[in-house]
Design brief:
Length: 319
Amino acid sequence: MLGRRWASLLLPLLWVPAVTADPGSCLPGSGCKDEVNWLDRSHSALSERTAKLASSLDRFFGVEDSVAEAARSFLRVRMSSGYDHFDGADGKVSIKGQWHLPRVDERVGLVFADGDSPDDLEASAEESGRSVGLRFEQSERERRGRFGLRATLRSGGKLRTELRYRYEFEPFANAVRTRSTSALWWQDGRGTGVTLGGAIEKSLSARQLVRYSARLERAEDFDGTRWHQGLALNARLSLRDAAAFFLRFNGETRPRDYLQSVAFGVLYRRQVFRQWMFAEIEPVFDWRRVAFEDERAFSPSLFLRLEWQLGEPVQLWKS
């Protein structure tokens, strides 16, 4: 079945153990000390480059991974206008923010949103929309694994609680970084569910990063498994702009196993007028099949956005 094949590709990403070599494991007299030190230094430099590039690109694009989990307060206001072949023209204003409560605990923050979430491949569609709540994040930065707990009140007075565990590691000495996220949640009206997500990132140069992301979701209100996969090339173009070229797949396994959507698009984002203001244009070419009984149809779309960020400004890259 199609869904099982996609799931088989995702499982190694989610459960790869973090096995690393011990620099002190060389046998006396083997002559490998210098070689291991050189490999360790190379691995450290490449891993640091990948981590910094991924963080700076995510921060520039306003992606959840680098913004919402950062130990800082922020507010993001986004105006968007777009046209979809099926849905027609639409315009909206979305607000998203986080306010840390230092007098309570630096790991506790107030989170709120009114509108769509940013483009985060590890977040489900249920995490978007209007919500307000509290978020607790483990603050030990030196640990690869990290727990988080969130309780939010969503649209319609629905409560959602979530326990999330995130793990990051660099298993290879070739500038590859891997992370996995496991979340156990309960939401009023949906019941209990589990979400497994992950990403593999590799820097191609000092300006380009390729990322593979995937997500599986099971819940009581749905018989099968919803899955999502994406491949993206993020590139810094200049000091003030960047672009992301992406390919995405969505599907589900029950009651019928089928591929819902195949989409290709380009997101261009530029810092305009001020350090905290951004403009975006995003054309997307989607081949969509909403239900199993439907025929697949071509659905192009175009989105224009203007965004303001309040809080710590996004720093421009050094030339």
